[in-house]
Write a structure and sequence with these properties.
The chain has 411 residues and is α/β, with parallel strands linked by helices. The chain has 2 domains: 3-248, 3-Layer(aba) Sandwich (Carbamate kinase); 260-404, 2-Layer Sandwich (VC0802-like), CATH 3.30.2130.10. The chain contains 12 helices and 18 strands. The strands form 3 sheets. It has an 8-stranded mixed β-sheet with strand order 3-6-2-1-9-11-12-10, sandwiched between helices. It has a 6-stranded antiparallel β-sheet with strand order 14-15-13-16-18-17. α1 (16-31) crosses α4 (72-87) and α7 (197-205) runs antiparallel to α8. The longest helix is centred in the first third of the chain and has 16 residues, at 16-31. It is globular, with a radius of gyration of 22 Å.
Amino acid sequence: MSIVVQKYGGSSVADVDRIRQVAARIMRTRAAGRDVAVVVSAMGDTTDELLSLAKRISTNPDRRELDMLLSAGERISMALLSMAIRELGGDAISFTGSQSGIITNDRHVDARIIEVRPFRVQDELARGRVVVIAGYQGVSYRREVTTLGRGGSDTTAVAMAAALGAEYCEICSDVEGVYTADPRVVPGAQRIGALSYEETQELAEAGAKVLNAQAVEFAKEKGIAIYARATASALPGADPSADGTVVRRDAPRAPGTVAGVASERDLLVLQARGTSATLASLFALLDARGTAGKQLHVASFGHGCDGMTVLVSRENLHDEDRLRRDLAARFTTEASLVDGLGAVSVIGAGINASYANVRRGTTILEEAGIETRGLATSSFRISWLIGSGQVDDAVGRLHQGFIEANPQRVP
């Protein structure tokens, strides 16, 4: 039988009734003649609640101990779902990330998968069992429990799908796929039938919450199709893009078309200026603290002086107070964190073939009275740095100007 991997998010397993509904959907997949490996997130807001508990104990919790704490949420989900499948007459077994062969690097809180050794999963699938795997977690080569950062269960699912040679990987949540913007912010947001790997990865990097960027990276490398769908939807049919979003190598869209608008509300900008040795010392501090950054820019001002800016997402920064203290102690006025910022991005293949989309988006924001604090581009993305309080307004304005005013045409 062919293998499929299904991932169910926290909202899909938020309580006992929903866990039972997920178990019934898994049993329907088995009845359709497929072997099933299932990856689950923690129930509802469990991860946030555990993190809040840690912060009540310590404003700068040790990252190793944080991983030991946060990985407990998925273990609860996997055991309960396995029990629910058995209650419906199925045969299921649950595995932690380490038991299922998820090997990571040695970073805590935001580890990256470096290898999957799915031998136990393969053995149990061969016995006809449904294998339920705790997402978001793995084990380092030093045998330390690690977690994969926000959205890490997606990464677990796609990495496992690649290791098992699965037919596809289904990412199930409370929304019907990937939308052109967050429907809670933009009422006119539309479901996107198909996205390329690159577009999806840029959407994730820019703050869209439906899929994880590293998960898409795994899918692209192995050519795994991702089906993003609602947990309440039917099983995928002949055209899975009809009621969900398919992520694959190519998407039927005219080059230069904006596919979606994404945003990130809570960003810090680390600004530094000094000699190359000063910046090297700053990078060493960030690595020692495990502080991941994005959109790094370094420029030389001559006379041995360089300038640097790097965006830091607060979401995975669990020791901000300690980082601020270290920056003040070691770099005094040479480095500082700027607060109160967010970013809004438009994404699409070929949108930067000219500067037309940069000019258009900047004009839209200026006419709405939204001040641009920075601008960055890639082959698939244009991002504007703005005040965090104006993010929702900016998303709506850009969505109206780029997507609602220009219905997408299939080439």
